[in-house]
Amino acid sequence: MAEEKAALKQLFVYEHDASRVELFVRIVYAWICIAVVLTIYGLIAEICILIQWFVILILGRRSEGLSNFIKGYLEYYVHVLSYYFLMTDKRPGILPKKVEIYEKEEE
Q1: Which of 96, 88, 99 is nearest to 15 (CA)?
Q2: 31 exposed, middle or buried (CB, 10 Å; 0-12, 13-18, 19+)?
Q3: Confidence (pLDDT) at 46
Q4: What is the model's pLDDT at position 98?
């Protein structure tokens, strides 16, 4: 259990220092390469959402494969957001990798 907690990290944390070189690399890396992957992945995910809607309408249940694909898109999107929106200089991979997103409610 402690090993699981150690692997968790907060994605959107303020970082004071920033690289000017990375700022220009980001134009090609994030705003072109990652944007292309996000756009294509997103279009396919939208088609899966539409198909999922009909699956639920007709069968009264969800397709696990469609849900997993849509979940993968959402996890990739959240994974690249902090880099894409200039919050960090740590580059994510261009291609999606397995990540898990958790929600923690503050009391």
Answers
A1: 88
A2: exposed
A3: 98
A4: 81
pLDDT, one tens digit for every residue, the chain (107 residues): 545 555 677 777 777 887 888 888 888 888 889 999 999 999 999 999 999 999 999 999 999 999 999 999 999 999 898 888 888 888 888 888 888 877 778 87
Structural domain count of the chain: 1
Alpha-carbon dihedral angle through residues 32, 87, 9, 43, given to the nearest 10 degrees: -30
**For residue 1, with 0-12 CB atoms within 10 Å meaning exposed, 13-18 middle and 19 or more buried, which class applies?**
exposed
Is residue 68 domain-resident? yes
What is the SS3 assignment for 61?
coil
Q: Is 7 domain-assigned? A: no
Query: Within a domain: residue 104?
Result: no
Instruction: With respect to residue 76, please indicate whether it lies within any of the assigned structural domains.
Output: yes
Domain that holds residue 65: 20-84
Of 31, 28, 38, 43, nearest to 95 by C-alpha is 38
- Name the DSSP letter for residue 85: T
